[in-house]
Design goal:
6 helices, 10-stranded antiparallel sheet, alpha+beta, homodimer, 3-stranded mixed sheet, HIT family, subunit A
C-alpha cells in the first residue's frame, strides 16, 4: 500500500510509493549533451551577443563586456518582465492586472561551456553564490520589488533553453503565491509555538537520521519527508536566517562545498538528470516574516505532471526519500 | 511589455505575453500516434487483461467482462491508492501521514482504439459523461472519501500511459490542496458579496465577449482571462450548481455537444496536442460550500514548467487568451 504524507508548511499531500520503489535505472533519463559552443552567447569571445553586463567577477586587467570574467551577469535578452516604467496596477471587473514590471537577469556561472556546478572548484562555486547575494542586495534597493527569485534550470526538459550553465534571477513587484503560502504556513507555526518550523524540521531530520545526506558546520542536506519529486534534496542553513542575503562569508564557502557534493551525487546516481534548483528566501522591502528560514530546494525532473497533479496539487512520488537517500549516499565523491 | 494578471479565486498570477503572442505553428507539437491495438487492454476481446469491470454501458445481450460494451469502468491495475482497509491517520513528529486509502478507477470511453472524444457521436459522449456521474454517486456512499477527482490525460506528454482513450477517477480521503484553495477563495467571495464568483466570471465574459468560444442554453466555453496555459479552455454550466453530480439529463446532452466541439477546435487548431482535462467539482460527504460552481478545465500541454513556475506558482503564457480564441474560432466544425 502507498503512503500519504502531508507537508506541515503549506499543507500539500504527496502519495509515496513505499511498496515498490523505483530505482535510478527505472527512470528513462536521456543523457545530457551540450550543444556546440560556437554560437554560445555565454562563452568567452561572444560577450557582444548578450546585452551589456550588469556586474561580473573578473580577472585583473580584463575589460567589461570582454573575456576574462569568472561569473558574469547580464539582462535576459528575452525578459519575462521589463525593468523600465512605473508600476501600474488596476482592476478589470473582477480581475486584477498589472503591467509587466520586473527585472530578469542571467548569472552566467562559468566561462566553461560544458561545466556544471558539480564540475567546478569550491572557490569558483563560492563566487557564483556570492554573486547571487550581490545581485539580490542591489535589486532590493528598488522599492517597486517585493520578491527576488533565484533559480536554475538544467537540461532542456527542466526548461533550459541555453546549455551553457547559468542561473536566472527574477525580481517581482508582488510576492508570488507559492512563497506566500510558505510564509503564511511557517508564520502561523511561529506565532503558535514561538519556534521556526524549518528549525524543527532540521531537528527532526537530524534526530531520525534516515533522510540526511550531508552535514557541515553550517548546513544540512536531506531528502525531505514530503518530497514532491523522487530524489528531491533540500539544503538548509542550521542558523535561523530569513534571507539568503544574510549569508556569511563562512557559510558561503561551506555551502559551495555542500552544493558541489550534493549535485555530484545526484548527477552520478541519476545519470546527469535535468533538474531545477530554487532558492527559497524571504520577500524584500518590509514584507518578510520572522518564521521564515531560507533554504535551497533541488528537484530532478524525473516525472511528468498529469491531470491528477494539476487537479489536486498532490504529487505521486515513485521513490520514497528514505530509499532515494541510499542511492545518493553510496556514490563515491 | 508583458501583462500580469491575477486570478480572483485562488490569487495566482500569470505573465501574459501580449506583445509577441505565439501562434499555433510556433509550438512544436509532436503529431499524436496511436500505438498498435493488439495488446491493448481497453480493446474489445481483451477484457480479461483488466481487473473485472465495476460498471459498464452495454449493448443488449452482451456479458460482463466480454465485448459489447460502450463505456466500461474497471479498477486501475496499478492504483495510486487502494480501496481496502481502514483509514489510519497519525502524526509523525511535525509531519502528518495516512495510509493510502482511496479508489482509482479507469473509465474506458469507447471501444474504438483510435477515437478520442471529439471523434465520437454526441450520444456516445453523453454516455461517458453520464458514467462520470454514476461512478461519482456510487463512490460518494463511501464515507471515508472526501473528494472525487475525474481527469483525463491525452497523449504521453500529458501523462497518458495507455493510448486508448480513457478517463481516470480517484476518490480521496481528504480534500486536496488545489480544491481547498478554490473552495476557500470562492467561499470568501460568496460570504462577502452573497454572489458566486464563477457566476460573476460567466457574466463578465458574456458581457466582454472577447474570450467566449461557444454558448449553449446550459453552458458557456471560454478561454479564461487568467489562463495558465496557452489555449486553455473552461466549460462552465450557466446554472449555479455545486457538484457535477447535480447535472441534469438535458445538461448532459448539451455538455456532450459542447465538449465535442471544443475538443475538435483544439485538436484542429493545434495539431492534436497532448492535453489534460479536469472536472472541478465540490467535495463530498458534507464538505461542500455554497460559493462553489462546478466546471471543466481543459489544458493543452504546450509548455514546460521550469524553475520560475516551481518557485513562484506564476505561469508564463505565450499566447494571450484573447489571441488563442481567434485561432480556435476560425476552425470549421
Amino acid at each position: 500500500m502507498s503512503e500519504l504524507r502531508r507537508d506541515p508548511i503549506v499543507g500539500r499531500w504527496v502519495i509515496v510509493n513505499v511498496e515498490d520503489p523505483k530505482a535510478p535505472k527505472d527512470f528513462h533519463i536521456e543523457p545530457h549533451h551540450y550543444d556546440d559552443a560556437t554560437n554560445c552567447p555565454f562563452c568567452y569571445g561572444n560577450e557582444h551577443m548578450t546585452p551589456p553586463e550588469i556586474q561580473a567577477f573578473r580577472h585583473e586587467k580584463t575589460h567589461v563586456n570582454k573575456q576574462g570574467w569568472q561569473v558574469r551577469v547580464v539582462p535576459n535578452k528575452f525578459p519575462a518582465l521589463q525593468i523600465e516604467g512605473e508600476l501600474d496596477r488596476h482592476g478589470l471587473g473582477i480581475f486584477d492586472m498589472s503591467n509587466g514590471i520586473g527585472a530578469h537577469e542571467v548569472i552566467i556561472e562559468t566561462p566553461y561551456h560544458t561545466k556544471d556546478i558539480s564540475d567546478l572548484e569550491q572557490n569558483e562555486i563560492e563566487k557564483i553564490l556570492e554573486m547571487y547575494s550581490l545581485r539580490s542586495k542591489d535589486l532590493e534597493k528598488d522599492k517597486r520589488f517585493k520578491y527576488i527569485l533565484l533559480f536554475k534550470n538544467f537540461g532542456s526538459s527542466a526548461g533550459a533553453t541555453i546549455d551553457h550553465n547559468h542561473t536566472q534571477l527574477i525580481a517581482l513587484p508582488m510576492i508570488p503565491k507559492n512563497v506566500l503560502e510558505e510564509l503564511n504556513g511557517s508564520n502561523e507555526y511561529f506565532e503558535y509555538r514561538d519556534r521556526c518550523i524549518f528549525c524543527d524540521i532540521i531537528h527532526q531530520e537530524l534526530e531520525e537520521k534516515e533522510r540526511v545526506l550531508e552535514q557541515s558546520k553550517n548546513f544540512i542536506a536531506f531528502c525531505p519527508y514530503v518530497s514532491r519529486s523522487p530524489f528531491e534534496i533540500w539544503i538548509m542553513p542550521r542558523a535561523h536566517k530569513l534571507s539568503y542575503c544574510d549569508i556569511s562569508k563562512e557559510e558561503l564557502s561551506d555551502l559551495a562545498k555542500m552544493l558541489k557534493d550534493v549535485l555530484r551525487r545526484m548527477k552520478t546516481a541519476l545519470n546527469d538528470p535535468p533538474y531545477n534548483f530554487i532558492i527559497h528566501t524571504s520577500p524584500i522591502n518590509g514584507e518578510d516574516r520572522p518564521g521564515y528560514h531560507w533554504h535551497i530546494e533541488i528537484m530532478p525532473r524525473l516525472s511528468r505532471l498529469a491531470g491528477f497533479e494539476w487537479g489536486t496539487g498532490f504529487y505521486v512520488v515513485s521513490t520514497p526519500p528514505e530509499v532515494a537517500i541510499k542511492y545518493l549516499k553510496e556514490i563515491k565523491l
